[in-house]
Amino acid sequence: MDEALLPEQQLLIKESRSQLWEQVYCLTTDQAKLLSLKYQRGLKTREIAAILGKSVNSIKVSHYRALKQLQRRLAFRRQQYGMET
User: Fold this and answer.
1) Is residue 61 domain-resident?
2) Separation of alpha carbons 51 and 83, rounded Å
3) Among 63, 66, 67, which Cα is nearest to 54's?
4) How much is the CA Rg of the chain, to the nearest whole Å?
5) Which residues contact 68 (CB under 8 A, 6 or more apart)?
6) 17: which of 57, 67, 71, 85 is 20 to 30 A away, CA to CA?
7) Contacts (Cβ under 8 Å, ≥6 apart) of 56
8) Residue 14's CATH number
9) Cα separation of 20 and 33, whole Å?
10) Residue 71 to residues 2, 6, 68, Cα–Cα distance (Å)
11) What is the model's pLDDT at position 1?
């Protein structure tokens, strides 16, 4: 985390990340696993495909769909809690 940020800002970022991953783990197991491999472990698409035993194209499509689903979940959450986008 950026040390130039105030402690309050660092806490908000940490909480936001936590809430984001909370929503990721509400996706299907495959979608959550894919996003975790991509963004937490920093793996490339071909590496993820090898781990999950799928084609690169299948991973690309699944990644797109997972991000769209996550986007919908986050938008719903913001709307539910009256938060602005």
Assistant:
1) yes
2) 37
3) 63
4) 15
5) none
6) 57
7) 45, 46, 49
8) 1.10.10.10
9) 14
10) 25, 28, 5
11) 53
pLDDT at 6: 84
Query: Domain count of the chain?
Result: 1
Q: Which pair of structure tokens corresponds to residue 26?
A: 């509400």
Tokens of 40: 């937490």
For residue 1, the one-letter residue type is M
Residue 40 banded pLDDT, cuts 50, 70, 90? very high
Q: Mind listing the pLDDT tens digit for each residue in 47-85? A: 999 999 999 999 999 999 999 999 999 888 888 877 654
**Is there a domain that residue 29 lies in?**
yes
CB of 26 closer than 8 Å to CB of 73: yes
pTM of the entire predicted model: 0.77
Range of the domain at 27: 8-80
Q: pLDDT tens digit string along 2-38?
A: 568 788 888 787 778 888 899 999 999 999 999 999 9
